[in-house]
Design brief:
Number of strands: 0
Largest sheet: none
Number of helices: 8
Radius of gyration: 18 Å
Length: 162
């Protein structure tokens, strides 16, 4: 846990240096950053409960989780802005009648709201897009209790398996 906090501090230090170099001044919307850090921790906790319990029974899960997280990252607005996806799917209706469904499916990825929120709050100097944030937030908080229950149920058998 301490190493993750140190890594987060180093990452924010690098980000601060880059913002100084590119003369990006944080606005009042930067106060959203702790909320997004907390939300990121909840998403990680939700995934960790499932991953830890499954890893005890199936050892290959340890290799599958980073691959799954990489796929989630590729399906999120890291390189391209969320506004591009909104333009293609909601404005231009690139997928026809399925455009809105694909956009909702896209925003179910919690990383979409997190990454877009960070970008908007720090770089874009605007408030987060709550319409893009809510689907992933609702999904995460609805899966979290099940994830915790699954971990606690599997925990009783950890000693027998290991």
């Amino acid at each position: 846990m301490v190493t993750k906090v140190v890594e987060l501090g180093i990452s924010f230090g690098i980000l601060a240096g880059m913002m100084i170099y590119y003369k990006i001044i944080p606005t009042v919307y930067a106060f959203w950053i702790p909320v997004f850090v907390l939300y990121t921790m909840v998403v990680a906790l939700t995934i960790s409960f499932f991953g830890a319990a499954m890893n005890v029974y199936y050892r290959d899960i340890a290799q599958a989780i980073p691959i799954g997280l990489s796929l989630l990252m590729y399906g999120s607005p890291v390189i391209y802005p969320l506004s591009l996806v909104q333009k293609k799917l909601l404005t231009e209706r690139a997928a026809g009648e399925w455009s809105e469904h694909f956009y909702t499916l896209y925003t179910l990825n919690p990383l979409v709201g997190i990454i877009d929120g960070f970008q908007r709050a720090l770089i874009g100097a605007t408030q987060p897009d709550f319409q893009a944030l809510y689907p992933g937030l609702i999904l995460t908080f609805s899966i979290l209790p099940f994830s915790y229950w699954f971990f606690k149920r599997a925990e009783n058998w950890f000693a027998d398996v290991i």
